[in-house]
């Protein structure tokens, strides 16, 4: 009988906890827009009515729970079937619907739930087939190392060295739990805060590179896992949804890996083929990510394979908590007058931190596709009219761009009409 902390079970424990956190308002996130949800289009989107989503969600939750529930024959075909069902829904809502939903697959928290569950499922498959799991252990650390490297590189290239990094998220009410404190800190002690934030921005980049490096080295893997935990403890003042919980669980799984080395010639042809295929697809996926980050040009054939691999794996561009996203602030209010969103502000009254992630993904869309202003307004309006909000009052919004300089923190209104 396996422990819940086993590397094949823990991903489904985390996924189940995430689904439980969605219980009060899952229909808003997974229903289509015709049913006051956030899904816009895509295969089967027309089936995502409120009634059907209730059924789908409970099947998903029950499957995820059974996937880690201890039993005498934990790697039975039945257990494998339920974990496959759970993974299917995770893939559909967090990866496939990323570009067909206002919520963009719940951003990084949703992707990491899927990513972790994918490895949990493969570990169950390997146990069921009696294959050597060393291959998966190596793939997991390589994959996570690439994630950390990509995230650090994006920060390196997009503002952190110019001191346009973590401070924008800390003063943004959409991201920060203590925005007023950090705004007052900057306005009353600008030079001190400048030096503090510049140091934090450097540490953020360095820490992610060190995590990526250490987890690849067996003797330092625990150090890398500890750094990951410490980094996300420091990020708890930020509204990151379930991402810290997922990262804590991943750090535990990484620290539990005792593999020193591997010899591919000791494995069966099928195991060898799985490893070579997986590592090739991973490399091509991250080649696309690096091409995006560095604005490189590729051979047409290589570019096509890289993009298809990127779509297949569901890898994301790790722009989480970077200046291009966190500088945007959307203020939502009800009981508005004709001059705009001047009524009662709704932050804290919509449904949980998941709504905060949705607002952040709305701003991601604005940053990536600035010319699609009409589409942006349509997406925000669908969000305002959705069941995400408890209030049925008329709602409106204003979008601001945050600027930080020696004069303090200013919110500059941005028009998208």
Give me the side-by-side strand order of the main sheet.
Answer: 2-1-3-4
Q: Using DSSP, what is the number of strands?
A: 4
- Our count of helices gives 16
pLDDT < 50 stretches: 338-344, 346-351
**Beta-strand content:** 5-15%
Radius of gyration: 22 Å
Q: Domains counted in the coordinates: how many?
A: 3
| Residues in helix, % | 55-70%
Compute the average pLDDT: 82
**SSE order, as H and E?**
HHHHHHHHHHHHHHEEHHEE
Q: Report the biggest beta sheet as strand number plus sense, adding barrel if it closes.
A: 4 strands, antiparallel
Describe the structure.
The chain is an alpha+beta fold. The chain is built from 16 helices and four strands. It folds into three domains: 1-130; 131-271, no CATH class; 327-414, no CATH class. A four-stranded antiparallel beta sheet has the order 2-1-3-4. Helix 1 packs antiparallel against helix 3. The termini are far apart.
